[in-house]
Amino acid sequence: MGGSAGLRHGIRVLVGLTVVAVIATMILAVYSSVRANDAAAERANRLDPAATVTAQLYTAFVDQRSALRGYLISDGANDQLLDPFRDAEKNIPLLTVRLRGLVTDFPDLLTRVDSLSRSYQTWRDGVVQSELDEAGGGNALAAQLLEISDVSLERFRDLRAASEGLTKAIADEQSAATGRVKNSADLLLTSVGTVVAVLLAMSLLMLVLSRRWLILPINELRRAVNAVAAGRHDTTIPAVGPREIVDLAGNVEAMRAQLVSLVRQNERSWEALAQEGPAVMALRDALTPSSLRDTAGLELLGRVDPAEGALAGDWFDAIEMPDGRVAIVVGDVAGHGAASGVFALRLKQLLTASLSRGSEPATAVQWVVEALGDTDETFATVLIALIDPWDGEIIYANAGHPDALVLRAGRTTAAGAGARTRARAAAGYRPGYVGGRGDLDDFDEMEDLDDLDGLEGLDELDNLDDEDGLGDVNDLVGLDRLDDLDDPEGLDRLTGMGLVEPLASTGPLMSSLVAEPGAWRTGRLRLRQGDVLFVYTDGLVEARDDSGRLFGRHRLVGELVRVSGRSPDRLLDDVFAAVRSHAPGRPSDDRTAIALSLSPAAPGGRRARV
């Protein structure tokens, strides 16, 4: 009995020592892991701001270069163009000091910061200052030649390489910090697993000796659940004890894992929003039209239905020229996100600078492509229309952009009804019946205009009344295929009827790959009273319905010619309503359009252009 009691006492002592050792080991492991986690988190928290400051520094460099180029383009006549340059020059030293403080504990990063500072000073003192001196001294041409010289390009290339190298080094340090956090988590999980194994062995021993094996698993489960409830979400729910308790623990662990996943996702979402949201909003604000409004002599309106989630590269603007003309610019940069937004902003600023100094549209496109330099695989489409409100002359350049459309007015005449009657007779038209194929309502889309050539007696086709809508075009039966208006021949038919005149492409898309002299040319046409110019981006015609069918240019043209005489405001309302009806919900790409027409002539006749 005494031996039995001594054995029981020894077992109790052994169990007690085991428990103490396990608890001490667990505390030590948790303490070490928490310390390692804290250290890794501290590094990550310092590296993230360092990455942000580096990006801000590079943006400041680019702002300085863009402002300098704009100033040089103006032949040094507009000193206000240097305001962004001066602002950036004030911010760069502050950002550099802050960056040094963030990377003080990272010798390699500190060395790269010094290298970046030297590269900036080399570019600033060796190139920029010379250009400013030349421009300030009245020698704008010499300053411009310095800006496009090999030395200038090489110095800024070195600055950009230093910035990219620093960004990559910071990213590498961030990855290493993330790895250390993961290793700490693995250590913690291993320690917890070891503790659970020891506790399981102790539970089995307790089961043999005291039949109290049920109490320990229940207590372990209770402690783990309480720890999770107290906010220690990484606490693993131990699966020990009878099958019923193990099942319960598994269900609780699954619930805990799901909750932890949701908490982590929510934290990442808030962090991403806090870091990226202001930058995205700033880009969107910068791409917002600066002066799109009714201008003297023009009724002008633009509209955008923004894409969901991503920052797209669409933008549009109207620029009032010193001579009274108005430049309309609509552009679309390939891709989405911050990179496309920044490229779109650069493009907008350079085009605005070039047009503001009096460049013709094709010349402006050529200059901007050359000024952008190597754009790698980034490209954009742009349409520039320079409009004289007093005589309606349009000088335009279309760099790979979807054809803008001029909707011609004055097609509604009394002869239109006679033309339609003869067209119906020539085609054997019966009301409500199309080519033996039933009611027009059975057609899902318009069909092709190619069979117009086969209709005889349409000598007054140009006088078709389009006021009753696209149904008047459908009345010309013999047009067995009206849904190929995406085909250029279909649009040519409408052009021949005098309903639509396209502003077709006058050159390739904007890219350094095609930056050859004379790659872009200028087109001309005249806007008459009552005509409407409609410019859009591809997001409008590439909207898809639930079946994946595009809205297409045929539907767009159909809506544009459906009713004549609409104001730009009403025309945009009807077009966007038609697109939303075809593709409900938030768009996957920005849908952008501008509509404008000449304002009614003021009493007393036209005003002379200044």
Would you write up a description of this structure?
The chain is built from 15 helices and ten strands. It is an alpha+beta fold. The protein has four domains: 2-210; 215-277; 288-408 and 500-598, 4-Layer Sandwich (Phosphatase 2c, domain 1), CATH 3.60.40; 415-496, no CATH class. The strands form two sheets. It has a five-stranded antiparallel β-sheet. The protein has a five-stranded antiparallel β-sheet with strand order 2-3-4-5-8.
Largest sheet: 5 strands, antiparallel
Tally of discrete structural domains: 4
Strand content: 5-15%
Count of beta strands: 10
The multimeric state of the shown protein is single chain
SS summary, helix count: 15
Q: Which secondary-structure class do the elements indicate? A: alpha+beta
Biggest sheet strand line-up:
1-10-9-6-7
CATH A-level architecture of the largest domain: 4-Layer Sandwich
What is the terminal separation in angstroms? 120 Å
**Helicity level, as a percent range?**
55-70%
Backbone shape: flat
| CATH domain class name of the largest domain | Alpha Beta
Pfam families: CHASE3 (PF05227), HAMP (PF00672), SpoIIE (PF07228)
Region (Disordered): 582-610
Organism: Pseudofrankia asymbiotica
Protein name: HAMP domain-containing protein
